[in-house]
Amino acid sequence: MASTTPSPDSQFIIGVDLGGTNIVVSAMSLDGSRLFGSQSEPTLAIEGADAVIARMARMVNTTVGITMKEAGVPKSAFLGVGIGAPGTVDRETGRVLAAPNLKWYDFPLVERMAELTGLPVKIDNDANCATYGEWWLGAARGGRNVIGVTIGTGVGGGIIIDRQVYHGSSDAAGEIGHITIDLNGRRCGCGNYGCLEAYASGSAIAERAREALLNDESSVLPSLVNGDHSKITAAVVYSAAGQGDALALEIVRETARYLGAGLANLLNVFNPDVVVVAGGVTQAGEALFGPLRTEVRRRAFKSVSDACRIVPGTLPGTAGVVGAVASFISQTTGHPPA
């Protein structure tokens, strides 16, 4: 008698990347080979948690319907929902403990989503998911021990040890943005001083550029924002650097040195084989990655830096979704995805 066990490419998990700005949802096959029903909508956290949850559940249910039609599978083919959520989470209880950008505190995300979708739900931190996604199907594929750095409004991170996300004793490991790189440095949004995030996040890059413009009248940066310095963003800095602007290039090089110092510390502690850097900062290209690798080689032990690749992420916009699916598989089976 022929086996009736469904093949991995005909079973699906819904991946959700819940961000402060956007919600991204897709259905992915269990083996990672097929993607269906991708959607993106504004989070609109200002409307409150109930509205965000309702929107997210609607997107999940719509994605299930699209996938059923396009892949020709029944509802029973969907094993569950994996969610990458911002802030600190408790995977065991399924609660978001603190997500300041959403203004969620001790929020029962898993319970609410399971009620609205009728599917099993698992959660993890969004930066952990992005790192896991790059490990499973992206730039860190094949790595055994991986460090991921996500650079956006803040600096997030994830740590993979022996192909599994390392969560620490209270589910809070991987806060790479809050490594201290200057004992008496800039004030960070967390309240501490000298954190990596206070120097290398997108908002910090823009702030440092605005400060530098006070003593530089030759930069093209003001012309890119019609003279309104408040509109300078990290993306504008990268654009100016791409045009050869000296001030912007120095900001990018300086950012690389800050990141390099932080990563060298992590390399000396964890000895990874891959570091993957994701987020808008990758737009800077070799202007960032060249001096970043140089700084890491200068500061980390040679045997450690020689063993490690430092690469940009290759799953822009989807790393969080892919990693949420991978996290669901890992939490459900106790093993990393194949």
From TrEMBL:
Lineage top rank: taxon: Bacteria
Protein name, entry field: Glucokinase
InterPro entries in UniProt: ATPase_NBD, ROK, ROK_cs
Family that this chain belongs to: Belongs to the ROK (NagC/XylR) family.
Species for this entry: Gemmatimonas phototrophica
Pfam family, one: ROK
